[in-house]
Amino acid sequence: MNVAGWVPLRWPCGPLEVERGRRRESFTATEAEALRAWADPQALELLAGSPVNALVVPWAEGSAGDEDQQRALASLVGAARGRGLSVVGWVGEKADVRKAAGAARAAGLQALATESREPVDGVEVLRFRKRGFGDRSRSDFLGDADAVWPGMRPLKPERDVDAMTGATGRPWIDSNAWYVRLARSLLQPKAAWLAFDPPDDGRAVPADAYRQAIADTEVGGARWLVSLDAPLRLGLSERRSEAREIWAAIGRTLTFFLEHRAWSDYAPVGQIGVLSDYTGANELLSFELLNLLARRNGLFRVLDKARAGETSFDGLDAVLYVDEAPPAPDLVHRLYGFAEAGGTLIVPPGWETRGVPDEGARSPRFRVFRPGRGRLAVAREAFAEPDLLAEDAQVLTSYGRDRYRVFNVGVGQFHYATSVGLRSGVLHVLAFPSPYPRLPVTAWFRHPWASARGWRLEGEGAAPLPRVAVDGGVEFHLSPAPLYCAVEVSG
Amino acid sequence: MPHERTRRQFLAGSAAVVGLQAARLVPFARAAAAATVSVAKCDTYGADLLPTLDRMFDQLGGLGRLVRGRTVAVKLNLTGPPWVRLGTLPAGLAHWVHPRMVGAVVHLLDRAGAHRVRLLEGGYASGIPLDEYVYQAGWDPREIAGAGRRVELENTNTLGGGKEYPRFDVPGGGLLFPSYVLNPSYRDCDTFVSLSKVKDHTTTGVTLSMKNCFGNIPTTVYGDYCPKDRPDELPRSGRNAVFHNGTRQPSLPAVPEVDPLSPRDDGYRIPRVVVDICAARPIDLAILDGIDSMGGTEGPWSGGEHCHPGVLLAGTNCVSTDAVATAVMGYDPMARAGESPFTSCDNFLELAEAKGLGSRDLSRIEVAGTPVREARFDFAPLIRSRFQRRSPTYPPKERP
Questions:
Q1: Which of A169, A407, A409 sits opposite B125 (nearest CB)?
Q2: What residue spans of B164-214 are helical by DSSP H?
Q3: What percent of chain B has pLDDT over 70?
Q4: Contact at 8 Å (CB) between B139 and B94?
Q5: What CATH number matches the domain at A404-490, 2.60.40.1180, 3.40.50.800, 3.40.220.10, 3.40.50.880?
Q6: In chain B, residues 226-265 whose CB comes closer than 8 Å to chain A
Q7: What's the pTM?
């Protein structure tokens, strides 16, 4: 079973979904009808020409209606199998997974998906889990049940508020990409799925929001368990043209990333190594630090304290040791060695200072020393505010060491990854809504890439980008960025 | 990087060091009603830049009398975030003063005997060190710092190394605020230089040496999100609420505005702040970079297009210097509110003149070097590139 090749879609239908909908006050008879209609094999016509090849259907939730549900879906499951689709049954946490598994085997489902930890034999189970790494046991599949709907929180510009920033200095962006990178680094699954649903506020979700959700997931190397909002599902049932256009846009976006799967094998470029055990008391700060470093478009590499002995600091400009408790002596030795060899080591209070004070350093929250060729920054107070720590880490590392810069995207998220041996690379650019007109974009790289091509979700293939050699690097110029574009570099 | 090597590298790329030319020695006369303004054509930021500036400063009486043995603060014009460009142009070719211009000025100040040169700017919504800030635009601050012996960069959005914000009273009372609190570097300098771009401005008509000083004001105290009772040492925004719209008062220790019932329109408010701040912290030397610039507005976020006036200006009176620059831009420095380029604002030159900061009357200002008519580059046609915004409500049609 090649789960990594699956492109999954939540397929809400049948009596269980109707029952769940009825718990909502705003649930309408039309919605109920649509849920029943999606249990009809004819509904699968929607998938013609779509890259979706796996359906995730409601299978059991531990209620009296489970058996009715499974009976109601029998013909749908058969038809789906007949069309070459994989079918996965979603089992709620309260359900008896073993019982659900028996029914799944009988119905011909390929797998179950559940947050339950209950062991099951005879059926493949795709385990979803809450965020956290107390359990480091590895598995080929990682399902993230805590993923958020990605995107920029809507600006509420008031007359007295600068539209370019939010209350934290920049608009708040929800993203799962940082967590995907963390999880892939710590657990190394072959496939990672994110389960999140569109906002349920009664309004139709626009196509761009779906594109953004897919892009945010794919740039981290994961796959979204695509979930359509209720108005869209209803619109598709009623064959409304605007709904079909949104569905087509979703399909094209999924196809785009399928056609560029090689990019997900590239290694994210790391500049600041973030070293932590990422668990227990350190979880909150280390998670938020990665989230905010990503939001500041900082290049980070996850360094797992549990495997520090086998972790290389090669290629890093800085290492930030996050945890309050000091590491084992051999790791301390390696970290000081990193600083003495030219790197920047950033640590909490209490670490032994080495070298001479760096008189030129102007960092109010750190005492900075020069041990050998590098720098040692010891915090004056315990790390507490992750956004400040992220900013301090970037400044201590120095923007003068930037590996890339992007101009004129406004509020954007960037992900830069390269192949082994720096033969090629990709810079993903996600642009969020802006009160200002879109401007031509410049991507600057320190690495002197020989050429670049620009990709867009809705484009007609790659466009060669003009290359300009500048002091300290090269620039490539793109026309104004829509929601997403990629700069594929090589040479 | 060794200091001397960097310095030589800078000079090699900029120009050969030229000897002082005893052209016209006009004594410095700080805050004179109408002081000499030097104008020069300069086509590039290359080899001609340093000798041209050197000659211009000679025409003003030489830099030495103004800076020798003194701490000199230079307010740079780096408006907007560092990751914004006009098209694909580096900021220095459009809305920021050019880094080679900064380096050339630093070098000449240093050579004239400045004890220390401190480069100042409040980076947009940022409190990080200024050298780190400008890296993000692609500048190398080491090259600039290497152009002189004791050169420092300071982000004046915050206190920096200071303990408290010093207060600068506006002599005779302010037009908008009676006083302003600023980063201590504005107090601790003996000579204050405003080094600005020559460009249009959506709110004040033109950006020149005086408007540049709007950026002196720290967003830790005057920013949109600051708490009322204290500064927020983490700048997060611009200064819209306090200044442009007047929807809130600044944080302590700043004092509230003179008249809370005055118009809340930025066309009324911003010109007055500009005059206040230039009265409270006077400019000793105004230097204007009009080699490459942008017209139509002050930054790419409002539209605009690139232009190449190929001109430099300098003077010891900011009002006179900006008046001559306004004329070089093809505008009338005597224009009233509602007239180009002050189509939706009061003319800050008029307000400054009335305040006694200097004369804007071209007939009273001696221009050294290139005559205005020869240096003229019309900016007015470039207004076409300005993004449309709300219809101007200022000035009111019926004016007293």
A1: A169
A2: 185-188, 209-212
A3: 90
A4: no
A5: 2.60.40.1180
A6: 234-238, 240-241, 245, 247-248
A7: 0.92
Domain count, chain B: 1
What is the distance between the alpha carbons of residues B227 and B239, in angstroms, rounded to a whole number? 14
Burial degree of A266 (CB within 10 A; 0-12, 13-18, 19+): middle
In a domain, B249, yes or no: yes
**Residues comprising chain A, all counted:** 491
- Residue B14 counted as domain residue: no
Q: How far is A209 from chain B (nearest CA, A)?
A: 24
Task: Tell me the per-residue pLDDT of B162-210, one tens digit each, with 9 for 90 and over.
Answer: 899 999 999 999 999 999 999 999 999 999 999 999 999 999 999 999 9
Regions of chain A where pLDDT drops below 50: 157-169
ipTM of this complex prediction, to 2 decimal places: 0.92
The model's pLDDT over A5-57, given as tens digits with 9 standing for 90+, comes to 999 999 999 999 999 999 888 888 998 999 999 999 999 999 999 999 999 99
pLDDT of residue A168: 40
Residues in chain A within 8 Å Cβ distance of B248: 160
The CATH code of domain A270-401 reads 3.40.50.880
In a domain, B15, yes or no: no
DSSP readout, A344-390?
EEEE-TTPPP-SEE-TT---TTEEEEE-TTSEEEEESS----HHHHH
Domain with CATH 3.40.50.880 in chain A: 270-401
- CA–CA distance from B12 to each of A425, B6, B191 (Å)? 36, 10, 28
- CATH 2.60.40.1180 domain extents, chain A: 404-490
CATH of domain A3-259: 3.20.20.70
Helices (H), A137-275: 177-187, 207-219, 230-237, 241-259
With bands split at pLDDT 50, 70 and 90, how would you rate the model's confidence at B391? low
Which residue in chain A is spatially nearest to B227 when comparing CA positions? Answer: A167
- Cite the residue boundaries of each domain of chain A with CATH code 3.20.20.70: 3-259
Identify all chain A residues contacting B241, using CB atoms and an 8 Å cutoff. Answer: 160-161
Confidence at residue B161, expressed as pLDDT on a 0 to 100 scale? 83
CA distance B63 to A267: 54
Residue at B278 is within a domain: yes
Q: What is the pLDDT of residues A335-388, one digit of tens each?
A: 999 999 999 999 999 999 999 999 888 888 999 999 999 999 999 999 999 999
> Domain range spanning residue B320?
31-385
Q: Which residues pair with B194 in a beta bridge?
A: B75, B286
